[in-house]
Design brief:
Elements (H helix, E strand, L loop, with lengths): L4 E4 L4 H21 L3 H7 L5 H11 L1 H17 L3 H20 L3 H29 L6 E4 H24 L5 H17 L16 H9 L2 H30 L8 H17 L1 H7 L2 H21 L3 H6 L4 H19 L5 H29 L2 H35 L1
Antiparallel strand pairs: 1-2
Helix pairs in contact: 1-6, 1-7, 1-8, 3-6, 3-16, 4-6, 4-16, 5-6, 5-8, 6-16, 7-8, 7-11, 9-16, 10-13, 10-16, 10-17, 11-15, 13-15, 13-17, 16-17
């Protein structure tokens, strides 16, 4: 399997800078809200753990409809920047509304709009990158060296929220996320308005993408990754509460602790191509799944401030294994006519579908205790890892059979 590279034409430096900036800003939105939003909803909006879990689960419905819809539009009509601009406007409205929201229903609507706007961004950005990689020019750029700017964006906005909280600014996640969305809108105006034409037929790109994902090895792969992401919902949604309730940290330290893992994640991303030169994408994905399982084991059975933060040392392995490498793996199997649609449909079915179930169930389990939540999540993650091993074994067998024909 070849490395994922994008060919960059001479004079394309400005366009490449805008694409890197785009990754910076879309993940900067997650950095401004992700580590802090559960604590914000609990402390500022007086919501219970069960209500918080329900909000995240219902808001995740945005991942069910928006990524495949937006990537279908991108593939079908070969359009990009207008879609991204509309999503950043949605983010701006959502953050403004959340600042004034009061009660469960108002918070649900604001977080849902934020989810509708956030979830398609990664799939569209990856689709744009993987589409541009088909251009034939001399200079090459690896996917991780562009995607790494998303981690930098997450780190920067998360640090800004920490500093603003320390300085006593009320509810800084609202202002920082809104400003990030506004800058994202301005940058999106300079992204490619249209995608290169293809020689595809009249079929819907989503149909071809669905056929690919429903083939037995990939179907089992999606189920395995889905179970890992199911447990990630328990981690990401309730880790901030775990730090404050179980580990005993003050709320202002939550984002900074999460940023430790993101800083180290940058190093793992920079080393990604060296990993790829020595082991396969499937091996990287399995290592990532095992890392997620180890993280849950530490939270479930070693509840202390030290172990609650120690796993951040290898957090980056989990990120590249279950978020970065799967996108590259799917792209290696996709056709030009449905490259964005594969990413969008995958986001809908796997991070979206399993994320909804994970948030719904983890919210109920968290009400009975965070330790119990992570113990159950650990066993689910181990089942998911086993399914990944089976999926890759079937894929290798299918490739060997095809080679004999």
């Amino acid at each position: 399997m070849s490395h994922t590279v994008v060919a960059v034409p001479d004079g394309a430096g400005a366009g490449l800078l805008r694409l890197r900036t785009h990754y910076f800003l879309i993940h900067g939105m997650f950095g401004a809200t992700g580590p802090y939003l559960p604590v914000f909803l609990r402390d500022e909006k007086a919501l219970s753990p069960g209500e918080i879990g329900t909000i995240f689960a219902l808001a995740q419905a945005g991942a069910i409809v928006m990524p495949p819809l937006l990537t279908l539009l991108a593939d079908r009509f070969r359009v990009m920047s207008p879609l991204v601009m509309a999503l950043f406007i949605g983010n701006l409205v959502a953050m403004s509304g959340l600042g004034f929201a009061s009660g469960f229903t108002a918070c649900l609507l604001a977080v849902a709009l934020s989810s509708f706007s956030n979830q398609p961004q990664g799939a569209l950005a990856d689709g744009l990158f993987f589409t541009l990689q088909q251009r034939e020019h001399s200079r090459h750029l690896t996917y991780p060296s562009v995607r790494i700017w998303g981690s930098v964006g997450f780190l920067c906005t998360s640090a800004l929220v920490f500093l603003a909280t320390t300085a006593g600014m009320p509810a800084p996640i609202i202002g920082i996320a809104a400003v990030t969305a506004a800058i994202g809108f301005l940058n999106a105006r300079r992204l490619p308005r249209s995608l290169p034409p293809t020689a595809g037929g009249g079929r819907l790109p989503t149909v071809d993408a669905a056929r690919l994902l429903l083939r037995p090895p990939l179907f089992i792969f999606c189920l395995g990754i889905g179970l890992i992401l199911f447990t990630n919902a328990a981690y990401y949604s309730f880790y901030p509460l775990y730090l404050t309730e179980v580990a005993g940290f003050e709320p202002r330290w939550v984002g900074l602790i999460a940023s430790i893992g993101v800083v180290l994640e940058l190093g793992y991303l920079l080393l990604f191509d060296r990993f790829r030169a020595r082991i396969s994408l499937p091996a990287i994905i399995i290592f990532g799944a095992l890392t997620c399982s180890l993280r849950l084991a530490m939270l479930a059975f070693l509840p202390s401030p030290f172990w609650a933060t120690a796993f951040q040392l290898f957090h980056g392995i989990g990120v590249i294994g279950v978020f970065i490498a799967p996108a590259m793996y799917l792209n290696s199997l996709a056709g030009d006519d449905y490259r964005s649609s594969v990413q969008g449909l995958y986001v809908m079915l796997v991070p979206g579908g399993f994320g909804i179930l994970g948030n719904l169930i983890s919210g109920q389990l968290a009400a009975a205790g965070l330790i119990n939540l992570y113990q159950i999540s650990l066993w689910i993650a181990l089942v998911g890892t086993t399914l990944l091993v089976v999926a890759f074994a079937l894929q290798r067998r299918a490739q060997r059979s095809a080679a004999r024909l």
